[in-house]
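step 4 of 6: structure.
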Amino acid sequence: MSYRERHRAQDDAARVWRGGYRPYDLVKEATIALGVVIALALLFTILFSSPDEKPSTIKQWSRHDPVDFVTTAATELDGTSGTGSYGPPYNHASDGQHIAFVRLQKWAGVSHPINTATDFVLAPLRAVPGQPALQQAVTTYEQAPAAAQSGWTTAFEKGLTKAKANPDGSITVPAGSDGPLPTMMTGLLSFAQSGGLDGALLTSRQFFQTDYTKSLLLMADGGLLDSRAQVDHLLGEQWGMMNETGSYPGQVWLWLYTFWYQIKPFSTSNNADILVMGMMTLLSLALVAIPFIPGVRDLPRRVPIYKLIWREHYRGAG
Amino acid sequence: MSTTARPPGEPTKSWTVRVRERAVEALPPDKLLPDGQPTYVASWIYVFGVLSLAALAVLIGSGVILSLKGPAWWHFTGIGHFFNSIHMWAVELFFFFMVIHLWGKYWMAAWRGGRARVWMTGAVTFLIAIPCALTGYVSQQNFDAQWIATQAKDAMNAAGIGAFFNLTNFGQMYSYHVLLLPLAVVGLVVAHVLLVRKHGVVPPFEPHQDATLVAVAATGGAGPDAPETTGPPA
């Protein structure tokens, strides 16, 4: 008998059960199960509650670490930040990740256009009222040739490596050939520390707001979220976002997604995300298609775990 | 009083009657809500299916309460935090029970005997439940939500789905979490349970071809689409 014939016969043998039945109360079983789950959820709630660490804000970040905030803002201005160089769906700075010729990120296009210089720095500065010197500095920057802008940001970023935070929340940057940058960044830092930048990045074409993309991307380009995440064992090398703040189980069902990021070639690849997503898509399809995959579908018959599950049945039959 | 205008047994062109007759034929009431179970259904592993359903019910119940009060409520009231905790632990229990149920069904090869769709709807439910939970985590409006959203966005963007599944857009994620994905999960679970009721619980392997099993193909009885366990004896 061929494999296919044997499989077909075994499959057909499982269609019809003509043996005995025993009394069964489905509604009663479901009610008891519901009671058990409610009791367990209540027990865990009473014993452990649930985590709720307050979110970070740009105001908090700019006050807590003004040098990091200004350094990040400078990279947003010259487009070298994580978001500035991201590619789709935010901008065309790169093609994004790919597997061979498959460039899903590029093909999906720029659906959430973000110009980091305009959206994160220049437009918020334009919203600051009553500071003519600041507005003049912004005008000077905007009207300067690209080469001059680049020279200013490069000089300013060089100075930032030696910058110091002052007790009043301002920063001191060694003087350099950085044009209007010191005035602009001082203005942006004050605006952020007052909470104005948090609101400015939420502003769009209408009154009601639910999209935090710009605020979150700016904060993610800086170091605040990372430093909080490290304390809460949430970094990528700490199995990342499947964990949760505190000693809570988090999204343990994401372990296989997170696992791939821990090993080569995924851990060292510039295309890690698309490689992991591709791998998980294949494995997910395989999970759904197990009934049709020779070998995988035959394993349960060869491994005698079923003898444990149906031991009562086999005891009766034997 | 009867509500049908058609004499019994008479052919009909009514779509309604055809749908009803096909539904009753596929799932007669005693099959939909059986009071008997095959004797081989005698293991604790069988409990995890119904426990998964119960956890889903608690998830939906606590989620409805959280939805009624809005996404910020649980941050500043004790009772809100209580229901958030119930919701969180229910999702942990849901996945715990579902994974054990899935492993149990794998080792039973529960797709045998024309039950492939039962397995497939269960597996897809598990896969859809993952983004359902993820959208919940990024809708929390706390540091966990910020961190998870900014980390997981890269995988979505790399796969080209960031345009309509933007983890940093709270409004979009909340819609996915409270409506679209739960609807998909519940729809799949309903289909899964109805298929289980239609086909019955998969019988044990019979290494020695136990007399209680009928090798239908060998005897030329039913075709490949013939379903179903027989119902319990009257």
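step 5 of 6: annotate
 - Chain A touches chain B through 105 residues (CB under 8 Å).
 - The first helix of chain A runs from residue 3 to 13.
step 6 of 6: archive
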